[in-house]
Amino acid sequence: MKKTMPRPVIGAEKAVGYIRDGMSVMIGGFNYGGIPYTLVDALAASGVKDLHLIANDTAYANEEHPEGIGHGKLVVNRQVRKVTASHVGLNRETGRLFNEGRLDLELVPQGTFVERIRCGGFGLGGFLSPTGVGTIYEEGRQTLEISGEKFIVELPLKADVALIRACKADTWGNLIYVGTNRNFNPLMATAADLVFAEVDEIVEAGDLDPDCIVTPGILVDALVLKGDSYYASRT
Amino acid sequence: MLPVLDDEVVRHRIAKRIALDLEDQAVVNLGIGIPTLVSDYLPSDRQMILQTENGVVGAGPIPDKPDLRYIGAGGRALSLIPGSSIVASDFSFGLIRGGHLDATVLGTLEVDEEGSLANWWIPGKLVPGMGGAMDLVTGAKNVYVATTHLDKKGRPKLVRKCTLPLTGVGVVTTIVTEFCVVRRKEEKMVLCEIAPEVSVEEVVANTGMTLVIPSKPETMLGI
Lengths: 235, 223
Prior knowledge:
The structure holds 2 protein chains of 2 kinds.
Chain A: H1 12-16, E1 24-27, H2 37-46, E2 51-54, H3 72-76, E3 80-85, H4 92-99, E4 104-107, H5 110-121, E5 127-129, E6 143-146, E7 149-154, E8 159-165, E9 168-170, E10 175-176, H6 185-188, E11 192-199, E12 201-203, E13 222-225, H7 230-234
Chain B: H1 7-21, E1 26-30, E2 48-51, E3 56-60, E4 79-86, H2 89-97, E5 103-106, E6 110-112, E7 117-118, H3 133-139, E8 142-146, E9 158-159, E10 174-176, E11 180-185, E12 188-194, H4 200-205, E13 218-219
Parallel strand pairs in B: 1-2, 1-5, 5-8, 6-9, 8-10, 12-13
Antiparallel strand pairs in B: 3-4, 6-7, 10-11, 11-12
Helix pairs in contact in B: 2-3
């Protein structure tokens, strides 16, 4: 997708139309905060499958919400073949499908997860982390000793598409965030071939203070206005 | 036999004791469960700067009117104290791994005499994932374990060697249970304080790890 100016403002269905079976998709959010709910709901409705979901967690699926909340729905709908995440305990379907051998699950410490994405987006070949040394997480991973301290070699993470959530955009696609909705979203904006940002509102270029912009618009392909679902309207 | 205390008494006793350990202006990450209660017991002449994995530096109590755009790591709405800041997850974990946190307080399934702890997975049960716990115990200057002395089946949680998958190796600095405070000093676990209703012998009999016993352990503060 060639970037055009001003950044196109498109519907969620059109945005997720770029996502094909088998693609890797990064989705922002921590717990229920900062998830691009409108985009994710459209992806859940699209029926696209065999996705590699890269997200901090798999949101929710429980007794109260068996259909799932946010990208929890993608797991419930069996649209996901692999999950890379740091925590999946709030989505009972993720654990169940993994235990039944129907889902590939890569669990990564949260700081490692986000740093791998940062490496992917910032052109680095990887990094050395002390996190997880001596634990089961180290098994099967390369280690290096530097000045007597052992580190795990961590590799970059990239994706075909990133669905992220910001607060305001301008017509150049520059983004600012609000509260704890920020979390993984600015990092994911750097690490995918296509980046769709769901926002509360879009203002004219020049209306956002350049000093406060977190994500430069050059990283963003298109903007989607948030919908009015329960969580989209409250987060 | 250790006396049986009311669950709420246990939780608040542990939280209060840890709060008394934290210095003014300490930057602290509190895990879910008992650790969450620590902030309720900070002495009034001290301020604690609460950090959350999802990016807040300077978190405050649950507000009267929750705004779901501001939540803590457990998903509860939080307030921001004057002077707080919010960062993205890479920066948040840079703070955590980089040694910028004075303390992290976590619950555990097991903690052992080498200072290792296991608190993220019981094999055979659904795997929840380690979340931020491995980074927190690796990077924080002090790792406080807040735990009941025994598990639900009456077995010691302070063990000689953890049998469950570890969260971190040799990282624990202080263990606080309802009956004692154990600190890791020169790679040994020292029984520093005990609760008034138990004897040293009772604590030792219900503890799997080898404890160094000072000639007279202090009475647990805050009771």
